[in-house]
Amino acid sequence: MPDLVFKICPASLWAEAQAKGVFAGAPVDHADGFIHFSTAAQARETAARHFAGQADLKLVAVEAAPLGAALKWEPSRGGDLFPHLYAPLPVSAVRWVKDLPLGPDGAHLFPDLA
User: How far apart are CA 40 and CA 8, in angstroms?
Assistant: First the structure.
């Protein structure tokens, strides 16, 4: 499995997480019972499907290993395995956070995810 998984979230929610030292999830995460993540290969499609046209987003790169057994790989969109975290995300597991701006065509502009 990849070393990094990615969370897309509103900047306001991420600011709250930084202040608390833990990210408990967005409303969709609470509804589903786990924190949704994507791999580098899945992140762009996740943004297009679930965050289309939304500005003021953050892309959070998270180290997978420290999440341990709470990070599960489960089938979702088209049978692909997606990382789902069944615990709050400690901010200490985050490698980096970057803005996820909208480009002129309305699609999000991603940094290099390698």
Answer: 12
